[in-house]
Amino acid sequence: MNPSIFATTQVTLGEFDFRSLGDGRSAAVRYANNSNYRNDSLIRKEMCVSSSMIQEIKRIIKESEIMKEDDSKWPQKNKDGRQELEIRLGNEHISFETAKIGSLVDVTESADPEGLRVFYYLVQDLKAFIFSLISLHFKVIPDSMNFEDTALTMIPTPRRSSLSKTVTSQWYEAVQLRIQK
């Protein structure tokens, strides 16, 4: 495999960051979210993924054709917040910023509904992909049997277990079906 194929891959989407490491044969995925639920603090997760995940992220981005879009006619950030997406693929670099999109109604009522629709669906696909990766790498278990206490602990899931392989292959097939639709 040619390491230059993977070099300088970076996708930053609000609370997610996906960056290739070293020679580009692996990547770090970082998730950070400020939770205000019951005065919780910052939730952080980090994991490494293989070159096949880098290839899948690149494929999703390239097939979306987001690199051809321009955010100049998209709604500007407002009191509800903003959404940002930054992509670096090799020598290409593009950055988008728009108001938070609540639903497809916000997309269709914009000055550039086609471009914003590409952005909206790409963001949804990337979030689903990364949340699925996080759920495959971490398992949530209650700290105690007292269900009134909702504190949760994240523990690493063994990467080579047969259950993990089965879940991964089922998830990958589901993602392939969803992307092809």
Automatic annotation (TrEMBL):
Tell me a GO cellular component.
Answer: exon-exon junction complex
GO biological-process terms attached to the record: RNA splicing
Q: What InterPro entries does the database record attribute to this sequence?
A: Mago_nashi, Mago_nashi_sf
* The keyword tRNA-binding belongs to this UniProt entry's keyword annotation: no
Against PANTHER family, the record matches this protein to:
MAGO HOMOLOG, EXON JUNCTION COMPLEX SUBUNIT-RELATED (PTHR12638:SF0), PROTEIN MAGO NASHI HOMOLOG (PTHR12638)
Keywords linked to the UniProt accession: Nucleus
Top-level taxon in the UniProt lineage = Eukaryota
What protein name does the entry list? Mago nashi protein
Question: Any keyword Membrane?
Answer: no
Q: What subcellular locations does the record give?
A: Nucleus
- Name the family the entry cites: Belongs to the mago nashi family.
Give the chief site where it resides: nucleus
